[in-house]
Write a structure and sequence with these properties.
This protein has 294 residues and is an alpha/beta fold. The protein has a domain at 34-162 and 199-210 and 236-278: 3-Layer(aba) Sandwich (Rossmann fold), CATH 3.40.50. The chain is built from seven helices and eleven strands. The protein has helices at 2-30, 49-63, 109-120, 152-157, 219-224, 259-262, 265-278, and strands at 36-44, 66-73, 96-102, 125-128, 159-160, 168-174, 188-193, 200-201, 206-215, 231-243, 248-253. It has a nine-stranded mixed sheet with strand order 2-1-3-4-11-10-9-6-7. It has a two-stranded antiparallel sheet with strand order 5-8. The protein is globular.
């Protein structure tokens, strides 16, 4: 009887150990991935950021396993600042930062340097629309030189832009078919949008899409020449960049002036893929990594 009890006890322990091992693997496989922590910074001049932050947050969280925290400044001026940037470790709680601010008149170098320091240290960024026209000073309408006092923001973004033409539809053409961000995506035409110019495309930037826009003559042009004709403009509208000593991944698009564009599934798909790519959660076929899709 003692032998039987010992044998039964030994078999029971072995079974428990085996089940624990199997269960451990099963539990590990079924444990949901930790949501990506996304910081969306938005506000400033010329856009309906109150609506667009809601569209972006809802669109991203609908598509992937992510939690989007919004840092919103309701100011409609080009001098919009954000309290979160006042701390040196402002980005420590986030996996990626979406820059959607329009702060062209904010030129305080220590403030901008704090923002850039986080990305130099390895925090990825997604830059949308007017972020490209923020934090600029000096002779920013001329191509900046790498390392110049006013070059830092452009070096992070990867493309220098200084302005845009009148609003009209943009034909978006994906230039790289096999990039994870654009794989399987179809060319499309926006509603009325702003086509940002390209003063300089930096060497680390990889162009993913270009935009072509027919621009009608402005009033001033018609005053100078009543017979002025529409012109066609072309510019880079989607690209990636690597920044700083850690080769931080940066994704940017100049699209996104109007609410209907920001709420368009094609735009939200693009931004979401760019976000996943920047955080290394996008596979080669453009699908979210395991645990991050919905």
């Amino acid at each position: 009887m003692t032998i039987c009890r010992r044998t039964f006890f030994s078999i029971t322990l072995a079974c428990v150990a085996a089940l624990s091992t199997v269960s451990g693997v099963s539990v590990q496989a079924q444990t949901p991935a930790k949501p990506l922590q996304v910081l969306l910074v938005a506000g400033g001049c010329c856009h309906d950021y109150a609506a667009q932050t809601k569209l972006l947050k809802a669109g991203i969280e609908k598509r992937i396993n992510a939690e989007v925290t919004v840092e919103f400044n309701p100011s409609n001026g080009t001098d919009a600042r954000f309290a979160i940037y006042e701390s040196d470790d402002w980005a420590k709680s986030y996996d990626v930062v979406i820059h959607d601010e329009c702060s062209a008149s904010v030129t305080e170098r220590p403030y901008v340097d704090r923002i850039l320091a986080a990305h130099k240290s390895g925090v990825p960024a997604v830059n949308l629309h007017c972020a490209m026209h923020s934090y600029r000073w000096g002779d920013f309408r001329q191509p900046v030189e790498i390392g110049a006092d006013n070059a830092g923001w452009y070096e992070m973004i990867g493309v220098q832009s200084t302005g845009h033409g009148p609003q009209s539809p943009i034909d978006v053409s994906y230039e790289v078919a096999d990039h994870p961000v654009t794989k399987g995506m179809q060319n499309w035409t926006t509603i009325n949008e702003e086509l940002y110019n390209n003063v300089r495309v930096f060497g680390n930037a990889d162009v993913l899409a270009k935009g072509v826009q027919v621009q009608q003559p402005r009033k001033r042009e018609l005053q100078q020449n009543p017979n002025a004709k529409p012109s066609e403009a072309t510019a880079v509208v989607v690209w990636t960049n690597t920044y700083g000593p850690n080769q931080t991944k940066i994704f940017s698009t100049t699209l996104g002036h109007n609410n209907d564009t920001v709420g368009d599934d094609r735009y939200l798909d693009l931004v979401t893929r760019g976000l996943l790519w920047s955080t290394n959660h996008l596979d080669a076929d453009g699908n979210p990594a395991t645990g991050y899709g919905k």
